[in-house]
Amino acid sequence: MSMQNAIKSITTTQISQKKGVEKITMLTAYDALMAKIFDGEVDMILVGDSLQMSFFGGQDTLSSTLDSMIYHTQAVCNGAKKSLIVCDLPFGSTTTSHLALQSAIRIYKETKAQAVKLEVGFEGIKSIKMLVENGIAVMAHIGLKPQFVRSEGGYKVQGKTQENIESLINLAQDIERSGAFSILLEGVRAEAAKQITQSVKIPIIGIGSGVDVDGQVLVWSDAFGFFEEFKPKFVRQYLKGAELLRQGVRKYVEDVKSGHFPSEQESY
Ligand code: KIV
Q1: Which helix H or strand E contains 199, and what residues bound it?
Q2: pLDDT of 217-245, one tens digit each?
Q3: What is the whole-number distance in angstroms between the Cα of residue 3 and the centre of ligand 1?
Q4: Which of 13, 38, 129, 159 is most exposed, with minimal Cβ within 10 Å?
Q5: Does the active-site annotation cover 123?
Q6: Whose CA is closest to 185, among 162, 158, 161, 160?
Q7: pTM for the full predicted model
């Protein structure tokens, strides 16, 4: 395919320019089929380490590996050509800035993802700078950080005290100065999220952080009702996916058992 005919995906610069102009949309995907459906509909597709729960059925995200993130990102890149693809750096792959760089370089070399995401506190600023200096686009994940679920004893909503809000604002500003193109803000009280969003020029993509942020992200299986065990307060279900699929499965089983499938037209 010539350069002229290649489908151009949205760039990190275009994402950054949407701040204050239009809301940014992002969904997770872990395979080519879903990615193809979401492609061009949402601005960004996140291959999140949430795949360890939503795809693999794990209890948390901690056991996802760099190999599995790369495998699923390759699949998503096979399906999506227009939306910007962000790959999560999994637990243990960013413990030093050098390791973060090695991990991110593998993602850039082995997939077509345009950016990586990493969960950070102030200690992660060095890693962000290291990645950006080496030509890797970074989305920083702050607020509630699922990779800290075991050490913190659960998923704790953030932004409840003035001290915590000020710390998140300082962190967001440090991240901006380090060259990240955006921030994912998870599980932060709406009023605090608004203040954090106003404190930086890079876009803040929220999840469970209220409406006054620059965009929203949801895990696809939550958004479309494929994960039925539990619906977090911040999730809106746009489809009863599992219910619809179950109806289809039951109809298929019924048709096979009754001999109505396959028909003559469906046979050679
Ligand atoms: O891994 C993930 O899917 C995430 C969510 C918070 C969107 O980071």
Answers
A1: helix 190-199
A2: 999 999 999 998 888 999 999 999 999 99
A3: 33
A4: 13
A5: no
A6: 158
A7: 0.96
Q: Is the CB of 46 under 6 A from ligand 1?
A: yes
Do 134 and 146 fall into the same domain?
yes
163 and 258 within one domain: no
Name the residue among 138, 72, 76, 148 with its Cα closest to residue 104: 138
With a 6 Å cutoff on the Cβ, whether 54 touches ligand 1 is: no
Q: Looking at the structure, do residues 250 and 129 belong to the same domain, yes or no?
A: no
* pLDDT tens digits along 33-73: 999 999 999 999 999 999 999 999 999 999 999 999 999 99
Given the structure tokens 């380090």, which residue do they identify?
178
What range defines the domain where residue 248 resides?
A: 240-268
- Contact yes or no for 104/150 (Cβ under 8 A): no
pLDDT of 240-263, one tens digit each? 999 999 999 999 999 999 999 999
Distance 266 CA to ligand 1 centre (A): 41
CA–CA distance, 71 with 252 (Å, rounded to integer): 31
